[in-house]
Protein: Peptidase M20
Amino acid sequence: MQKVTEYLRSNQARFIEDLCDYVRFPSVSAQPEHRKDLKACAEWLVKHCKGIGLETRLCTTEGNPIVVAKTPRKKGVRRPHYMVYGHYDVQPPEPFDLWKTPPFEPTIRGSSMFGRGASDNKGQNLAHLTAAEAYIKTGTELPCDLTFVIEGEEEVGSKSLAAFLVKNQAELTCDAVVISDTGIPAKQLPALTYALRGIAAFEIIIHGPSRDLHSGIFGGSVDNPAMALAQILAKLRDKNGRITIPGFYDDVAPLSTYERKQMARLPGSEKEFARFLGVPKLFGEKGFTANEQRMARPTFEINGLTSGYQGEGSKTIVPSWARVKITMRLVPNQNPGKIIKSFRSYLTKLCPPTVRMEIKSGHGAEPYIVSPTSSEAQAALRALKSAFGKEPVLMREGGSIPIVNQFKKYLRADTLLLGLALPDDNAHSPNEKFDLELFEKGQLMSAHLWQELPKK
Amino acid sequence: MQKVTEYLRSNQARFIEDLCDYVRFPSVSAQPEHRKDLKACAEWLVKHCKGIGLETRLCTTEGNPIVVAKTPRKKGVRRPHYMVYGHYDVQPPEPFDLWKTPPFEPTIRGSSMFGRGASDNKGQNLAHLTAAEAYIKTGTELPCDLTFVIEGEEEVGSKSLAAFLVKNQAELTCDAVVISDTGIPAKQLPALTYALRGIAAFEIIIHGPSRDLHSGIFGGSVDNPAMALAQILAKLRDKNGRITIPGFYDDVAPLSTYERKQMARLPGSEKEFARFLGVPKLFGEKGFTANEQRMARPTFEINGLTSGYQGEGSKTIVPSWARVKITMRLVPNQNPGKIIKSFRSYLTKLCPPTVRMEIKSGHGAEPYIVSPTSSEAQAALRALKSAFGKEPVLMREGGSIPIVNQFKKYLRADTLLLGLALPDDNAHSPNEKFDLELFEKGQLMSAHLWQELPKK
Structure:
């Protein structure tokens, strides 16, 4: 291992140049005019992977190609196999005028590289490739087999990934998936994200009179659909911030003392957090800290309201309809299907006979968890500690990463989320940056991970 | 009186021709390009009034001119004085393609004259002028003095009327104002509208986080302003349809048995009414009929809701703010100022500390009532009965007519609302029409009114 870490230490300048080359591609998957830039970026990756000694190929899909790169296999030996997932496509750079330096001309200021995709996700997946390079170039034997899968449609919903996984199931089946595409709370605070929330989306439309009515002539004798909607919504959350849908909390895996202790180690006070959000006072489910509420507890959020007249001044109508858009965040082990069913039947009960209700279910995603005491999680924590020289924290992430559920479904593998993005890295915003000290720490972490993971 | 009624009977054909001439003017006050048509229409009115023997002048205002026409006064005698109000301006005719015949080419089909302004308000104010003509032309002495005030800005908010009333207060002060500009429930059902609802408009904005937040990362730890708004709104109306603002009903004048009996005489069942509105079931304040609810009881209506994402699909945010537009309809003797104060203080009590509330008050108008047992109301009922040969009904109107409050304020006079517009007259819509039998009945009603009103 000493040769590996020495190789990494002494080649940082070149690695940063490699990252510059990688970031220069405007590989914006949301914009059709960049299709050729995505292809060129994928081809650059193939060349780079071959150059560092990986057996590499470009897999065509219905969308952008996927790069598959494998470390040299040891003939006749069945070793642990890990997949490293990343993506070479990036978010659109707009608005351009808010960038201090052009998004596709990577620029180093202080300890950061600025450029679209530097953090999300080029810098993070290149860190893993660099660790593999160090093993191969120093002739250090890896105690496991690695397969890199780097796709080009993550920012537009990974549409081709499921078919690709199905097609290459035998080759890709592995003992665990490793992804560096999430956050790290601070430069000196390495973290393993071990759980994600799921999601269930709804749209509810309350239909009242067949057209907007004059509120002077008819108002008072007919229910107001916006009021009916408000009264239904109001009943869905109690004063303790608990969601009132019958059975909603039945399957929620309780937070262990160990997990709560870990979450309490995250930096920042609730007062600072309220100031950061710009609210007079925080609000959430009683009995949980703000971090627990936003990372590890289920939620019910109104995302949008629409009814009647929305312009200047007033219009004296009883509106014909009112609509709400809702998403719930679900946590392990809630089942979206069960929640959707219970919600629909509760809504039917709450809806008064004076209006007609229409419910549309939108997208859904399962929540995700890897036990923080599993051997994989513990191995990841050891690798983080070796790389950073600090005790890592265990985190849950409040958002959803649907591909993680695909890996579970198609490859039967758990995913270790070892993010390197700082909270101020501006992923998806102008002036995206990646911290170059974390680039190096990430390479080290990856190198250690392949030592730790195969240990049982 | 026999000479008067005979004159009216035998001159119908010419009166209809006069109405055609009047309707031909495209006197659309909302459209600046019709300014000259408004002036031409006012000048035609002056000429017409002079021709039938009224002392007439055109009063300039900051907007369109007002026609003032007076019956010949009896020297040295102080007689009861009544003002007849009307307006010569009309609503815009658009959309043109929905008209069966051009809006400003009056056309008779069946017993109706079709044309913009035929019902609202040219036909109705010409009926009153025609009655005065009959008295003058037959040399029949009027037992009172009449002043016709016909303005040209009613459809755009009567902006010049208040200044005009103040300037001509001495001349216009009168014992009662008569307006035919409201509805009649059916051809065979003459009606006196004796009360109007007032109004108070509000906009409430609930401010949450300083920007839309990612519901995965932050959701659960911060209040959702759309939910906070729903929970505030939900508390404002109870399950019996009663508004919960403290003191809201304190000043409401109770409906007398006489009034409720009158309202029960209006045609149509509640089942038919629900079908007409297109709702599965009517809803309103418990203990009152639908007609009472919409005509004589105060209401609280949500006119519009706005928050967060309103486009296709879903956007997983905690919105930064949520807004509601509200109008309340107020009834005699509720005081808008008192209600506004009570509502604001109740809202402050309902608003949770986790969001910030902003309340904007909009326009307001006082409710209006003339006692249905007053001598003026009783005189109007006798005149209606004489003209129609049927027992008239007493009605309240759920909307507001702000000028009525101006007459009360500047002229200290009550207003008798003796509308001739049928429910299907399409006022403000394409194919506006006026029933020519009601035109004649209206003339007779006016002729009788001047006999009945001076009786104490």
The mean pLDDT of chain A is 95. Residues 144 and 418 of chain A are 19 Å apart (CA to CA). The two ends of chain A are 19 Å apart (CA to CA). Chain A has 14 helices and 18 strands.
